[in-house]
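Case study 2.
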Amino acid sequence: MLKDQLTLEEGQLLIKIARENIATYLKGGEYVCTKELPEIFHEKLGVFVTLSINSNLRGCIGYPEPYMELIEGLLDVSVAAAVEDPRFNPISLEEFENVKIEVSVLTKPQLVQVDSYEDYLNLLKVGRDGLIIENMYHRGLLLPQVPIEQNWNIETFLENLCYKAGLYGDAWKDNNTKIYSFQAQIFDE
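Prediction:
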């Protein structure tokens, strides 16, 4: 888990800032955060912003690695989720009124060391672990809440992780494949 857990109030502040940031961008402005921020917002942490309308995904972008301070990452990926997710058209200001925002704050991904691919089935846990897969030039990521929402077991989770990376469903069994796990604190509206 995160070294320092965010409080519920801090999580709700992340959502409020993400909403204000996206709304300001969609209205043609540039958001400036003038709030006094908790110290943890200045720690380098991975962050994802997921947008949905009526429980349907409408955008999801994030930084899996702790490249920048949480607040900087949040401001970047909240707008990106709204207008740069290549799977969707940019969100309009009218649509944005119906958007539900979810913010996931991530731990640093750790390589899962295994002797055999069967070990993944015992080491990884649905609902606890988010996963990143790498094989050659292919890379994919699924957040820990995805297999719960889709009612997947660990094997189905691994198969869909492969598909997300543009790999065959059983690529997780390949010796050249690396799998990293991470955890997340998830806040939603």
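The radius of gyration is 17 Å.
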